[in-house]
């Protein structure tokens, strides 16, 4: 009995130490998971730039400091691409503004009605010129999204007119007028908006901006026809994937939870499509396009929706053909205006293998600059001190900063380099003579 009592006494002395050790181990495990998940040990750095050494690119890097300075995300969560993406996608922006615009309606040749919102500048542009940003949002997005409103408000205050495309079918209160909605690479609605701006403002110059899927559309639009680049000063594409055909394989992988994001985006697409079920599937439209709406309910990926619904809007015979013809990778090499391509290294939607496309393009073409940040997620790029992000993001600032630099470059160029054809300079005043 005495032996048992001694054992119990010894055990009672050791238990608190054991529990303390378990607590410390649990705390250490939690801290380790937090540090790993939030990437707290990851460094901050300026964007990794790929470009050719030209006078224009040297001027841009000097005039747009966001491209060369360190991008510092919020300390506690900003180094997680997932949290950056979630904050952009679900929580919106801090103190999101509500710019006032006018909605325009444009009838299309196939009976569809494109819409875009037009926002006038809130002051004169610093160069004194008339400049319009033509903006294409991300998948299923429109001018009322928080990130678009924040960017438009910022651009207006810098002297830019903004025209924002509302993807066909994306606005919940606008009915479709034909059995068709937006697709991954259809440029018809964006072209109609650009055409309207050129006619309504014959003296304006254009800056083309595309976010995510919108980046694919604007680069494809510019590369489809050389005339589409007329009066365009430059183009900025943020967080696009360049090739849907290459991306589809990565979207089925669980690496970086892309399969989960694929499911979420597919679910959102289903909601948009079903909100227009009468226009898309009602009456003769079902027979005409040969859609299979029953398969929509069981779809768990964007590829299934694209194969059963989206490709049929334009009569593509297969998913492969749809992705090949709608991806900007086959057109972007035809873009000759200055082009800034921006991606984030921790974007959970864009696989690293896709980034060889913009990197190779920038190495080959002198008009292209490719900027890759360490952090930022998908269209996040929040900045801030510790916890709460600033209303304006690094993405907002770099687009406007790049646009400002391009406008200054265009204004100071000699006549012989203006993008508009002008009478030749006198023989004694050549481009070389004025230091270009």
From TrEMBL:
The gene is LOC115384765. It comes from the Eukaryota. Belongs to the AB hydrolase superfamily. AB hydrolase 4 family. One of its GO terms (biological process) is medium-chain fatty acid biosynthetic process. Its EC number is 3.1.1.23, 3.1.1.6, 3.1.1.79. The keyword Ubl conjugation does not apply. Residues 132-385 form the AB hydrolase-1 domain. The keyword rRNA-binding does not apply. Keywords: Cell membrane, Glycoprotein, Hydrolase, Lipid degradation, Lipid metabolism, Membrane, Serine esterase, Signal-anchor, Transmembrane, Transmembrane helix. Progesterone-dependent acylglycerol lipase that catalyzes hydrolysis of endocannabinoid arachidonoylglycerol (AG) from cell membrane. Acts as a progesterone receptor: progesterone-binding activates the acylglycerol lipase activity, mediating degradation of 1-arachidonoylglycerol (1AG) and 2-arachidonoylglycerol (2AG) to glycerol and arachidonic acid (AA). Also displays an ester hydrolase activity against acetyl ester, butanoate ester and hexadecanoate ester. PANTHER family: ABHYDROLASE DOMAIN-CONTAINING PROTEIN, MONOACYLGLYCEROL LIPASE ABHD2. It is found in: Cell membrane. This is Monoacylglycerol lipase ABHD2. It catalyses: Hydrolyzes glycerol monoesters of long-chain fatty acids; a butanoate ester + H2O = an aliphatic alcohol + butanoate + H(+); 2-(5Z,8Z,11Z,14Z-eicosatetraenoyl)-glycerol + H2O = glycerol + (5Z,8Z,11Z,14Z)-eicosatetraenoate + H(+); hexadecanoate ester + H2O = an aliphatic alcohol + hexadecanoate + H(+). InterPro entries: AB_hydrolase_1, AB_hydrolase_4_sf, AB_hydrolase_fold, ABHD4. GO terms for cellular component: sperm flagellum; sperm plasma membrane. The active site is at 212 (charge relay system), 347 (charge relay system), 378 (charge relay system). GO terms for molecular function: acetylesterase activity; monoacylglycerol lipase activity. It is a single-pass type II membrane protein.
């Amino acid at each position: 009995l005495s032996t048992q009592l001694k054992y119990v006494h010894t055990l009672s002395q050791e238990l608190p130490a054991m529990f303390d050790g378990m607590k410390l181990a649990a705390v250490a495990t939690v801290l380790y998971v937090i540090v790993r998940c939030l990437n707290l040990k990851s460094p901050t750095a300026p964007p990794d730039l790929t470009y050719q050494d030209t006078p224009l690119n040297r001027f841009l890097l000097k005039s747009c400091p966001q491209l060369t300075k360190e991008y510092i995300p919020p300390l506690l969560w900003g180094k997680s691409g997932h949290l950056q993406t979630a904050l952009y996608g679900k929580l919106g922006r801090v103190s999101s503004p509500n710019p006032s615009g006018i909605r325009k309606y444009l009838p299309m040749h196939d009976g569809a009605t494109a819409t875009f919102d037009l926002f006038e500048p809130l002051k004169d542009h610093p160069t004194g010129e008339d400049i319009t940003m033509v903006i294409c949002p991300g998948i299923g997005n429109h001018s009322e999204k928080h990130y678009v409103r924040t960017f438009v408000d910022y651009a207006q205050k810098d002297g830019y007119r903004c025209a924002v495309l509302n993807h066909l079918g994306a606005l919940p209160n606008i009915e479709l007028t034909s059995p068709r909605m937006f697709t991954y690479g259809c440029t018809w609605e964006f072209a109609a908006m650009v055409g309207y701006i050129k006619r309504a403002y014959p003296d304006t110059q254009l800056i083309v901006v595309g976010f995510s899927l919108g980046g694919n559309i604007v680069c494809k639009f510019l590369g489809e026809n050389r005339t589409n680049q007329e009066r365009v000063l430059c183009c900025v594409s943020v967080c696009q994937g360049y090739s849907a055909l290459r991306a589809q394989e990565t979207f089925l992988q669980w690496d970086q939870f892309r399969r989960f994001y694929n499911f979420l985006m597919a679910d959102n697409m289903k909601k948009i499509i079903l909100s227009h079920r009468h226009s898309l599937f009602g009456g003769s439209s079902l027979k005409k396009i040969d859609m299979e709406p029953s398969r929509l309910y069981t779809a768990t990926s964007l590829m299934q929706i694209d194969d059963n619904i989206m490709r049929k809007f334009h009569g593509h015979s297969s998913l492969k053909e749809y992705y090949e013809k709608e991806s900007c990778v086959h057109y972007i090499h035809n873009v000759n205006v200055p082009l800034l391509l921006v991606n984030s290294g921790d974007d959970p939607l864009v696989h690293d293998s896709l980034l060889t496309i913009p990197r190779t393009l920038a190495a080959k073409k002198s008009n292209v600059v490719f900027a890759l940040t360490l952090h930022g997620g998908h269209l996040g790029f929040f900045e801030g001190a510790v916890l709460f992000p600033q209303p304006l993001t690094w993405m907002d600032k770099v687009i406007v900063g790049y646009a400002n630099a391009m406008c200054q470059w265009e204004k100071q160029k000699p006549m012989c380099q203006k993008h508009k054809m002008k009478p030749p300079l006198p023989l004694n005043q050549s481009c070389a003579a004025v230091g270009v």
